[in-house]
Structures are given as C-alpha cells and as structure tokens.
Specification:
Helices cover 37% and strands 19% of the residues. By secondary structure, it is of the alpha/beta class. The chain folds into two domains: 3-124 and 309-330, 2-Layer Sandwich (Nucleotidyltransferase, domain 5); 133-304, Nucleotidyltransferase, domain 5, CATH 3.30.420.40. The strands form three sheets. A five-stranded mixed beta sheet has the order 3-2-1-4-8, with helices on both faces. Strands 11-10-9-12-13 form a five-stranded mixed beta sheet. A hairpin with a 3-residue loop joins strand 9 and strand 10.
Length: 334
Amino acid sequence: MGSELSKFVVAVDVGATNLRASIFTLDGGQLKTLTVRTPTEGHRDTIAELIYELVIKLVDDLGLSLKELQGIGVGSIGPLNIRAGEVVNTPNLPIKNFRLRKPLIELFNTSRVYVVNDCVAAVWGERNFGLGIGVSNLVYLTISTGVGAGVIVDGNLLLGKDGNAHEVGHLVVRYDGIRCGCGGIGHWEAYVSGNAIPKYVRYYVSTVGYRRRSRVSELLDHGDVSPEEFFKLVRDGDELAVEICNTLCVINAAGLASVINAYDPELISVGGSVALNNYDLIIEPSTKYLSNYVINRVPRIAPTAFGKDSVLVGAASLVINPPKELLRIYGESA
C-alpha cells in the first residue's frame, strides 16, 4: 500500500445510546466502522479512552499505521464547551460532563482533533459530500434520542460562543407544555424524540384519550409504549395511535417552521433513527401544516444522503476540509 493511499482520518459519533468510530480515506471513502454502547458510568475521560481502544482495533484490523493518521473528527451530543472540546451537563447521558479533545490529543499525539456537536458535523458532511454540495444555506435536522440541528448560513458554519448555536430541540413549541429532560418547559425534543415519545403517548392518553380503549391504552396498562411499538400501531391503523401521531406531525411542523423562519435555508436534510425509520409518518405529513407557521419560503426537505452514517461522514469531513470557523476557535489557520 502506497503512503498516500494509506493516509486516513478517524471519525467518531458520540451518541446518547451508541458510540461509533470509523476509518475514512482522504476522499471521504468509509473503510470500516465499530459500534458499541456509549458508557453510562465512568470518569470524565472514560469515553475518550474507549474511542482510543476502538480506533486501535480498527487500525489493526485494516493493517494501517497510526503514523498515517491525518486527524480525528468527533461529532458529539451536547451541549459543548467547543473551545475545550468538552461536553457540559448533557441531559441525555448519565455521564453528564466529559472531555474529548484534550485526552484524544494526548492519546493519539496529534493536535488535529476537531470536536463539534453531532449535528454540526452532519451538516458539514452533507455540505461537503451529500445533498448540500453547492448549497449555501443548509440545515441538518436529527430526530433520534433527542432533537438537534446543524446550520450553514451564506456558506458559514454557525457555531456560537460555546458551540451550541443550533440547539433547536429546545425551541419552545408550547409555553405551558411538558418538561424536557434538560428541565425546560415545552421544548420540541420533549415531544417527538425517541426518549420523549413514550412519555408523550402516556400524557396524551391520560389527558385526551383516556375515555377510549385501544391497543395503545392496553399496552400502557402494562408499562410504557416504546417508539417502535407506537409506530407499528400507527401503521396498523389503531385510531388513537394515528390521532397521537397526527399531533406529533403538528408539533414537528411548528419546530420545522421555527427553523425555517430563523435560518431561511434552501435545504433541510433530515436524519436520526426516529425520523428516518418513520419518515412517511412524522416528517412528510408535517409539511402540510407548515403554512400555519412559516413566514419564509418553504425549502426542500429531504432525508439525509448518508442515513445512520451522517455524523460519521461529517466528522471525517471536519478533518478532510476543516471549517474556517472551527479553525479560528482553535487558533489554527486553514
């Protein structure tokens, strides 16, 4: 293997449920990925140390050398302290605070470690390699364990003072609504995310649908209804499940409209397991309600080009083509 061909980058997706590490070539080709459960206990460097272990296994499996490592890109759940490359008080993981950039710099002996919010990574990947090529105004939206976004306006990647300029999951869709995992009231994420759907189904049945018997209410008698169970009932035509799903579409329309009104994108690329697995149930139908909420012209809305790998592709693109906004924060030049 020639030296140029053996050069590679590491991409990492730190999710609330799973931790994924992958090896990419410099042209964006994905060679191999390992997936494990994200640690739920440990110290502030536990996750970084697990990333190192995964990468060493990948490098060994592919017959590569760490000498050819060109850098490490990380897309992580937030909120972040982007300058330090640390996650601060995340609502979606028992390890609330953990370091990424500094321990990875030390473990891999390289300064080229780039850490951003997972959706920021994904929107950068979409811009470099996916649906967003040639698009100057782009939002990547994920509906998964939580709800989040990455945003590019006029070709500029939006980061904010701490790297959290895109926490759209905490847009308020109802000022007197359900309390979010972060403690706020009425946040978009508190209704439509994978963590929230079981709670919202129970809330809806107890406040609106309690007079009717359905498969939903029968399942609730024995515990919570998982997102998978709920969407199966929707597809099976359970009347109450369909009614609840329609309210989720209205909520998604309100959230999408807020994103459109705030950022005026040409394209919204949608990812995340909840959205991608049920796109026809909770994204496509929501568009018919957008006219109730938007002032800006409705953009193209489409599933991400990369499916479950969108954050990994984005993390790799951070190294392959580092955004100038991030280099400025790290005090580096392009």
